[in-house]
Design brief:
This protein is an all-alpha fold. It has a single domain, classed as Up-down Bundle (Growth Hormone, Chain: A), CATH 1.20.1250.20. The protein has 15 helices and no strands.
């Protein structure tokens, strides 16, 4: 198993997220966009995940050329992003975001499937590879906070372009045969998709990511309103991912002890707690730090449990489709809805309201998962 080559891709991919998610909203704010426009532009990045991973997942499952698709998506996404340097108008940036994210969002689900083929019957080792993505996120988000405080947010597009180049270069060192042999022993896809457990899991994942919309889109802007510096805000983003890494390191022990279903339920319930704290206690430093530590559950535990459940339900040639659907319905549809509603709530009722709405959504996700994801999982 090419551990370091697989880990290197995660390192650069999530390093780019460490620059994009916390700071892109601030960059757009520096261009004088209001909350609804920022929410809409961020929603575009998420919305392309509804279509893009499924298109490329279908191609990958029928050709077996996963790494070729990953490399092409990385290169095309990088070239499309260059468009941000030509104009700052809303419609031009919207077009650039559509093209960039259509290709960029195609890469991770297929790389996830490649990683699982390598792991074989050792899927519990997934967290030890994926944690390098968290390391990349931490290094970028923490380092950029201080850098952008001093140099200015206008440097952000240049930094992102360098990171996208790094993603593409890292994809070149993973050989095509890493995609593994596709087993022909599988259920018809329609039968898998109509299972109540699968439907319940996808709905719960959609609601969980919709609840994260205010955080991914407006958390940095929200915290600057309470006079926190970019260095501190970057530190809070980094803290969330540090505890996420620690959780990844222990997931291989937690899964056999508690089961994937119980871990998923705990993550959804703790998400509600996190959003309520963020809504009502942004000026209480101890609670701000505690809420960020809950990222260990709301992303670390949630993602590790969800992706292993997807791997369990989607076997054989459906692996790529399963990962693509998970990405599309949760990070795509859920993330897009989350970014979209948060902009309007922020503008209409104040920032606290969007985090209260987030708590309601994650609570609904907990109820859905409780009733539909079986105890055996």
């Amino acid at each position: 198993m090419p551990y370091w080559r697989l880990s290197g891709f995660y390192l650069f991919y999530f390093a780019s997220l460490g620059a994009l998610l916390p700071y892109w909203g601030l960059y757009l704010q520096s261009l004088d966009y209001d909350a609804t426009e920022i929410g809409t532009l961020m929603a575009i990045i998420m919305a392309t995940k509804i279509i893009s991973p499924n298109v490329w997942g279908w191609v990958a499952d029928h050709t077996g050329k996963r790494m070729a698709i990953v490399r092409f998506g990385c290169l095309a996404g990088m070239l499309a992003f260059v468009g941000v340097f030509f104009s700052e108008s809303f419609f031009w940036l919207a077009l650039v975001m559509v093209l960039f994210s259509f290709f960029w969002n195609a890469t991770l689900p297929q790389f996830e499937a490649t990683t699982f083929y390598h792991l074989g019957d050792q899927i519990h080792r997934y967290s030890s590879i994926r944690l390098w993505g968290s390391v990349g996120f931490i290094a970028t988000v923490w380092g950029l906070g201080g850098f952008l405080d001093g140099q200015g947010i206008s440097w952000l597009p240049h930094i992102l372009l360098l990171l996208f180049i790094g993603i593409w270069l890292s994809s070149l060192v993973v050989p095509e045969e890493a995609a593994g042999h596709l087993s022909l022993d599988h259920e018809p896809l329609r039968k898998v998709l109509t299972r109540p457990a699968v439907i319940g899991l996808f709905v719960a994942c959609f609601l969980m990511q919709a609840s994260h919309g205010p955080y991914y889109t407006f958390y940095s802007i929200y915290m600057t309103e309470y006079d926190y510096s970019l260095s501190f805000i970057g530190g809070m983003w980094a803290l969330g991912v540090i505890v996420e890494v620690l959780m990844f390191l222990f997931m291989h022990r937690l899964v056999p002890k508690y089961g994937l279903r119980n871990l998923l339920l705990a993550s959804l319930l703790l998400a509600s707690v996190r959003w309520l704290i963020t809504a009502f206690y942004p000026e209480t430093l101890v609670l701000v730090i505690f809420a960020q530590c809950l990222h260990a559950a709301t992303f670390g535990v949630y993602h590790a449990a969800s992706i292993q459940l997807i791997h369990h339900y989607f076997s054989g040639r459906h692996q790529g489709k399963g990962q693509a659907l998970y990405s599309s319905l949760s990070f795509g549809a859920g993330g897009a809805i989350g970014s979209f509603y948060s902009g309007y709530l922020y503008e209409g009722f104040g920032a606290w309201s969007m985090f209260v709405a987030a708590a309601v959504l994650s609570t609904l996700g907990f109820i859905i998962a409780w009733y539909f994801v079986p105890q055996s999982e």
